[in-house]
Amino acid sequence: MLTPVSLLTRIQMSSSDPDWTTFCKLYYPLVQQWIKRSSNQVEQNETEDLVQEVFLDVHRNISHFIRHKTGSLRSWLRCILHSKLTDLRRKQFPDLVNFTELQELIIASSSGAFEETKLYEDLFEKACNMTQVDFTPSTWEAFFRTQIQGEDPQSVAQIMNITRNAVYMARFRVLKRMEEVLDHLLG
Predict the structure, then answer these.
(1) What is the DSSP annotation of 145-168?
(2) What is the pLDDT of residue 74?
(3) CA–CA separation, 117 and 115 (whole Å)
(4) pTM for this structure?
(5) pLDDT of residue 143
(6) Which among 42, 50, 94, 177 is most buried, taking Cβ atoms within 10 Å?
(7) The pLDDT value given to residue 103
């Protein structure tokens, strides 16, 4: 799932109710699903409490979140959830919990959701296809190599024989347009 960057920015800056509502609609079911997949030992009332604790933590700390790449927010949410699950298990079973196993379950459950992953991959592919036609091949390549493949902007600049600033500008322009496309597709 790609979080519209504009939504994330608005939440970090102003925390308006409509933006939080949209954010919660996107991620509340996902966090619930992670909890259910991570352990069949979690009761329904514990699940709801855990989700609330995760979102309370998100609300408190969203201004400190830095998006490094696609999927950063989901990784951050999983880390918060892992911490909350660990706290819960330590309270319930102080001497019996294998915390490494619990973390592996969370990772496996979040990466194993084929239908969910396929849906988001399809959405991302559609957004890429719609966005790519608006840019020159070199602009798209600079964006793709740095943002999607995670290559170093300076290396990409040298390989493409352009300035590092040109790489950053290309990435910014494509991200801005992709954000608009995703807002349209999700809206």
Answers:
(1) IIIIS---HHHHHHHHTS-HHHHH
(2) 80
(3) 5
(4) 0.48
(5) 87
(6) 50
(7) 52
- What is the structure's pLDDT at 118? 61
Residue 39 DSSP label: -
Six token digits for residue 109: 């459950």
Crossing angle, helix 153-160 and helix 164-186, to 10 degrees? 110
Query: Tokens standing for 14?
Result: 């102003």
Distance CA 175, CA 147 (A): 9
Cβ neighbours for 164, distance < 8 A, ≥ 6 positions apart: 153, 154, 157
Per-block mean pLDDT, blocks of 10 residues, the chain (187 long): 67 78 83 75 76 86 73 78 74 51 52 55 78 90 84 91 91 84 72
Q: Give every CB contact of residue 53 below 8 A, 6+ residues apart in sequence.
A: 84
Contacts 24+ apart (CB under 8 A), 88-97: 88/42, 88/46, 88/50
Q: What pLDDT score does 163 carry?
A: 92
pLDDT of res. 96: 45
C-alpha angle with apex 119: 82 to 83, nearest 5 degrees? 5
Q: How many residues does the chain have?
A: 187
Question: DSSP labels for 91-151?
Answer: HH-TTT--HHHHHHHHHHHHH--HHHHHHHHHHHHHHHHHHHTTS-HHHHHHHIIIIIS--
